[in-house]
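Illustration 12: Glycosyltransferase involved in cell wall bisynthesis.
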Amino acid sequence: MKVLVVIDSLNFGGAENVLVTLASEAPRLGLELEVLSLAPPTGGRATWLPRLEAAGLPVRFLGLTRLLQPSGVPQLARAIRDSGCDVVHAHLEDASTLAPIAGRMARRPVLCTLHHVPGSLAGREAVRERLAVAVGSRSAGLIFVSQASYDAFAARYPRSHVPERWSVVHNGVDLQRFRPLPPGSTAQLPPEFGIPAGVPVAALVGHMRPGKGQEEAVRAWPDVVSACPDARLLLIGNGPLEERLRGLARDLGVASHVVFAGARDDVQELLPRVTVVVQPTHSEALPTALLEASACGVPAVATAVGGVPEVVVDGETGWLFASPAPDLVAASVKEALGDPVERERRGAAARARVEAVFSSADWAEALATRYAAVAGGRAVTQL
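Figure caption equivalent — predicted structure in token form:
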């Protein structure tokens, strides 16, 4: 079965990341994947292209510059027909708005997935989200990546809630790619980080933009260092806030304890070598970084928002705090760093939980079942 994956762009993000994971599972399920980005490959909107190509995924760009571009739907309908696909799977808001309409023109069934929890939006962004939910709800099926996301959208848009078409499919993590270090392996991080061997390291993986928690983590670090003088905060990723975060670390006197690693393609090698993962996020549907850390046997310290508690069980697989306030972040990080026995116990429990609930194999099979259902004209709800 051929699936055309339509996505808003190939920016750095969790939705784009899951395409690489799906590519690794597709052959055993008899799936042939092709990726179509609505946006052109300019202005940083093709960051993930090398990763997708390395995974063997053919990628095309439609080149749309705005959602309501008059030629957009006809162009997309032609691309769907030309692909020869059996099913279209749209990811993110713009794709979930345009693909169901274009799919109807091309006579192909369309599934849509939204990867966020609705927040406080206004103006154009509010309209964009409302359109995605309204049109996506009229596709063959609208998928949410967590129960928290489903519930929040149902509460925000009750008129668009179509229970027979809405469903939850948790994203999965590749348990072979992300796994604990084998016994006897070195836990030393790359020398370019300048982190001495044996010091505690809290890693935060994510795009550096408002709401992702990097600022709160940096603001918490003086308090952490007061209790754990050698502790390092490892920021993995880049983005528009990077220079501001560097300045903040300098102003707070912790520049030597905050390491900026930049965007990395070896996260699976880094995570098993850190002490904990920290994510003081403001909103998260289902955090990929926490799934990957859990698969590596690394416990998480995170905000109990959105789908985070579906991944991290407080007191069992990690530490959760109520809000991303720096004092709460610091208190939880200090507790985690101060108890190696409990860290090991929760890390092992985190690995066991992702094996049971979040494996990429189970996730891909759930998607393949839905692809087969909608290709055959059946509903997705009770699968």
